[in-house]
Amino acid sequence: MKRNPAPFVVAFSASALLLAACSSEVASEPEPESTSTDPVTVQLLTHDSFALSEDVIAAFEESSGIEIELVSGGDAGSMVAGAILAAGAPTADVLFGVDNTLVTRALDEGVFEPYTSPEASALRPDLADQTFGGLVTPIDFGDVCINLDDTWFATEGIAPPTTLDDLIDPVYSGLLVVQDPGTSSPGLAFLLSTVARYGDEWPAYWQALRDNDVAISGSWSDAYYGDFTFGGGGDRPIVVSYATSPPAEIVYAEGEPPETVSTSTMTDGCYRQIEYAGILAGSDDVPEAQQVIDWLLSPEVQADIPLNMFVFPARADTPLPEVFTEFAGLVEDAEQLPADFVAENVGDLLAEWGSVMGR
Amino acid sequence: MSDGAPLQVTDLVIGYGSPLREPLSFSVQPGSVLAIVGPSGCGKSTLLATIAGITPALSGSVTIGDRNVTSLPVNERKIGMVFQEALLFPHLNVRDNVAYGPRRQGVDRSHAREEADRLLTWVDLASLGDRSIEELSGGQAQRVSLARALAAKPDVLCLDEPFSALDAPLRARLAEDVLAIIARAQIPAIHVTHDPNEARTMTHGRAGGSILSM
Amino acid sequence: MPAIFLVAFLLIPLASLAAQIIGPGTAGYLFDALPWQVAGLAAVQAAVSTALALTLGLPMANVLTRYRFPGRRWALALATVPFVLPTVVVALAFRALLGGTLGSGFMIVVLAHAYLNLAVVVRIVGARWVTIDPRTVTVARTLGADTWTAFRTVTWPALRPAIASAAAIVFVFSFTSLGVVLLIGDASTRTLEALVLRQTSVLLDFQAAAVSAAIQALVVGSVLLWAARQRASTVGGAARDFFLIRARGGSRLAVGLVATATLVIVLAPVLALVWASVRSSGGFTLAWWSGLFGSNTIDAGSTRIGSPLAAMGRSVAFALATGAVAAIVGGLAAMSILTGRIGRAFALATALPLGISAATLGLGTLLAYGRPPLDLRATGLLVPIAHALIAVPLVVAVAAPTLRSADPRLVTVAASLGASRSRAWWTGYGPAMRTVMVAAGGLACAVSLGEFGAASFLARADGPTVPLVIARLLGRPGEASFGVAAAMAVVLVIMTTTLVAAVDRGGDRGGDRGGTRV
Description:
By secondary structure, chain A is an alpha/beta fold. In chain A, 40% of the residues lie in helices and 19% in strands. Helix content of chain C is 73%, strand content 2%.
């Protein structure tokens, strides 16, 4: 009778699990030199796009004696949904990554506990009053902008578009790919940008886009890697992406970073997405959570944000890396809609968009 | 049953790719049994498989009366087979197993079932028609297998070590039954076995019975 | 024990979620046309996907599990690979291969679904097919049946329950598909799963989401119930042996053809990935591979991707844990089918997680087990548990058809020889169980390796699994992002193939009957 492999498998997997757990612990949390009591652990709830340098986190843990545990909530929307459902008895202490399309709803559900960080005085002027009564703190912002494949335009001998109105010009027929706003965050941002620009006439604009043979993709990845002509092998040289996509192309290129990149942003019609952090109401470690919020606004973290998350720091006068200053779209007057307007109308906007575009 | 036709095998070369042995020729008269004896691996099962059409012959011919079946597929040769295991169809009951052959020949269900019952009587299992095949003993299953093969009204009956899985007294009884059935059906039969005694039993003193040693 | 598992990790999270969401107005959403329309669209798409998967998968099931040929084990393991690939990867690979001719939309989604689910058909139907004695087909032919009639009247009745199980599972997977339809679908391929996601995380309309999720669960439950009915009318017959056929003559050609076709179909998207993993704007490059394993791994020092090797180790650990848990729970659940109607109902209940969207399950688990007083996140067990929930119904589906046809007489024999009840049980069903469990465990491991949805909720943000790493890489620009993602996907393919092949080897030792010539 052959030996039953089951106990072996269980033992092996249990030890493998233990190993994996230990190794990930060791990798991210070196022993903090705490002076007095046991280290407090602050659980930081984030989304899939969150990133910071490990040594920036380690430095904070050493100096503050606070251990940071990174908890994942899925993508930004799912994270906020989870926070809303758990309001009052939260799954973490601090939430980072709720953006201006979703924040009103979270606020209404009482997800956050008020805190105004002393660091907030160092915020950029245009973000200084974006705290919704001291309940959340802006940490970074990104701009969703049209990206252009300059090489393609140069080869075809066509001048690239510079405004939203250009996109409905027949010269650019069949050259644009956008994402479905119901399934893609940049897609939604672009839709909101057109609503901000055209007001009640926005359905007419989209009808014109449809007449101009716009392609609609389900996700950013599919549009950028599938349809965009640059590096994706697609057939559309105009895509909705981020103002920081061109510098990302440089940073994430092969070998030595190239001198230039052949994509650029169209600075008209960009939509600003602001990301906030807040203390979750019901947390047991409020003082430590407050320290974490302060830390997120600190010069060290703010300077670390651009090359990790490819967004812009909220703190004024934070030095930007060179790839940003040279290649990112630095947009002065991005489109924005009031957060509560968005929260109230997003359902209707999506429904109307669907019927205009036949989806 | 009317008189059947003889089986004639001429210069038959069996094998898979290359010949297993020299060409074989023999004939079997209706109502009589050819017993093929030999140790394992000598090719007796292959010979049956070739005659039945399960395996293609390398050369030579197989005829039944004036019908040359050498290039016909299995299902058109009308050669019935009984294997060492009964190989009854699990999803059908005993009666429907036996009725399988007639059904394939286009007989409608109720007539096929009547025919099945008739044959079950031939093999002394008339009362078991409604049973599931799992309820049968080894000997009963083999009888059903025999009835099933016969129900299809084959021109030849091939038995490939049909009793090897059964115990001695059962073997003897079934051997008698098979002989009686073949005499009654008046078709040629080939009986393969590794046991020389069994070969003798199947052929000794029977009209036309002969033994082929391989 | 499986009951406890289900209650603890399925019912309680769902109840926690429901308690938060369901209110007096919820029922009103049932009258909204939208979720029903989406359900209809998804049903059509799923039906076509299932038909395609069966068309491709049945010949593969036939050849890969029943015929002896060199490399058979590897071919079988390869056929399982599509199942394990993260849907993100498959969608992009299909886009790369076929996007030029097909674009996005119905056809490419259906093809991708068939591709992803080949393993389900091959494994579930194959596990049953290999226990059917091919000589019964020979007998049928001597009784006058031509090849097709023999298949129809002898093989099909025995296979039907397994095919029904496989078809039901493929239908359910296609019906609840998320990644593929989001990435390469269009308006005709909407699913309730995508609608739930949208209602939850974009519209924050939880009540509508709950209704959509409920409708999906209803459809899935009905399909699985239907499949269980098919299984109930199953064929008996001793099936402790496995029959492997050595092909001869004409059938050799057919076997070779199918095996080759399998390789081509399975490998084409994989090769597209391999191609992408060595290409850059400068031509051929190994930079992405050294970005994985070299000293300067991509995003070194950032929390987002972490060490690719650590991610691989994590994925393997989770996979093995999932395989063990799913095999045990699923095996016990499958055995409970044999105890009668309650057992059958219970086995059906284990399939519920298939109809619950991963987002719902993830959220519910977080609410139930992600915060004080019962915070299980630190144990690292939440991911394997969630994966096991999804894998258990597959285990049951693989095991059940074979188990039902195992010979109960052996149990009686063992008992009469003085064995205690459980020992007699094990003697009677043990051999069949062991081999089937190992095969099922392999499938469960494969599920875990490629799972994305639940893991994105339940893994630590700085402890991603391989599919999470791939998704994160694909979520930002840069040829390094894409190249390294492709390389990681290739690694995932290799990991899966090896794991599954190893698991199969353990299983095959259980019962190889000598080649039976047909």
